[in-house]
Amino acid sequence: MNDLELLARLKAHETFGISMVQRIALFGYQRAVDTLERLEAQGFIERDEATSLWRLVSSGATVHCQQRPGEAGISEA
Questions:
Q1: Pairwise CA distance, residues 20 & 24, whole Å
Q2: In this structure, are residues 61 and 76 in contact, taking their beta carbons and an 8 Å threshold?
Q3: What are phi and psi of 73, to 5 degrees?
Q4: Residue 63 zone, left/alpha/beta (φ > 0; ψ -120 to 50; rest)
Q5: Cα 11 vs. chain centroid, distance in angstroms?
Q6: What does the alpha-carbon distance between residue 25 and residue 23 come to, in Å, rounded to a whole number?
Q7: pLDDT in the model for residue 75
Q8: pLDDT one digit per residue (tens) for the chain, 77 residues
Q9: Which helix (H) or strand (E) holds 8?
Q10: Within the chain, what is the greatest distance between any pair of CA atoms?
Q11: Which H or E run includes 23?
Q12: How far apart are CA 69 and CA 19, in angstroms?
């Protein structure tokens, strides 16, 4: 599952953790952790230190896929 699909599925949840990403994306623990860290670094999600869960930075935003020859990414519009 790519980041765009994962973010689209996570929109249905107010908060989410590592185990939810594992279930939704069928990732192992380390891949789920790496994915959350990458999405947080890119500014798509933020961690709530009080609950140790993440949430989408802008739940009403539309996530768009950007593709260029040889690379793929996502951006928020």
A1: 6
A2: yes
A3: -160, 180
A4: beta
A5: 9
A6: 6
A7: 53
A8: 899 999 999 999 999 999 999 999 999 999 999 999 999 999 999 999 999 999 999 744 445 444 444 544 555 54
A9: helix 3-10
A10: 41
A11: helix 18-25
A12: 33
